[in-house]
Design goal:
Blueprint: E1 4-8, H1 15-27, E2 31-36, E3 41-48, E4 57-65, E5 68-69, E6 80-83, H2 88-92, H3 96-107, E7 112-115, H4 119-124, E8 132-133, H5 140-145, E9 149-150, E10 156-158, E11 161-164, H6 170-183
Parallel strand pairs: 1-2, 1-6, 2-5, 6-7, 7-11, 8-9
Antiparallel strand pairs: 3-4, 10-11
Length: 188
């Protein structure tokens, strides 16, 4: 049976931060599911960096169907989770079932990948205390407020947790995550 990995996301997730791990993990042989607050079509966005702007810009990206609603997720069905960034983590962090899923993976010490604004969900779930995490650099204060140690890197590994800053880190982020999956003896 093919091992399953769950991506926790929602509307306004960063397109590249959803699709890169989605397809890279499929390529590695995993059955990848998209989990969201509701099982419906999601609207992703594209964040880009433009000279002269103090922060990123946002444009509409691709749409994609969620496979499962958070409330219907049995975390034991999955070997790992991925939390992409974009604006989705800003509101899914308030979802009790999203928090439940995240806490399950930390309690079981199973592989977790998060990038960009994804660590906002980890902070809300209360799992960053004493952990080293990267994130979009402007979220350093959020990681530290949650009791974590911020590291400005592209493939930061702290035990079962692999984090990155944003989509420009996708390659180093997923390379490190695949190594953690292999180390956990999680094979597709």
């Amino acid at each position: 049976m093919t091992e399953k990995i769950l991506i926790l996301t929602g509307d306004a997730a960063e397109t590249l931060e959803v699709f890169y791990p989605y397809h890279r993990l499929q390529e590695a042989g995993y059955d990848v599911h998209i989990g969201a607050p509701e099982k419906r079509k999601l609207q992703f966005v594209v964040h880009d960096f433009v000279d002269g702007f103090d922060t990123y810009t946002e444009k509409l990206g691709h749409t994609w169907d969620a496979d499962v609603a958070f409330e219907d997720v049995d975390p034991d069905d999955y070997v790992a989770i991925v939390v992409p960034g974009g604006r989705a983590p800003e509101y899914i962090r308030n979802n009790a079932d999203a928090q439940r899923i995240v806490r399950h993976f930390f309690e079981k010490n199973e592989p977790v990948a998060a990038t960009c604004h994804g660590p906002l969900l980890l902070a809300a779930a209360g799992v960053l205390q004493g952990r080293t995490s990267s994130a979009y650099p402007e979220l350093a204060i959020d990681v530290e407020t949650a009791g974590g140690v911020f590291e400005n890197g592209g493939g930061v590994v702290d035990g079962n947790l692999v984090t990155a800053r944003a989509w420009p880190d996708n390659g180093t982020w997923m390379k490190a995550f695949l190594e953690v999956l292999e180390g956990a003896r999680v094979s597709a």
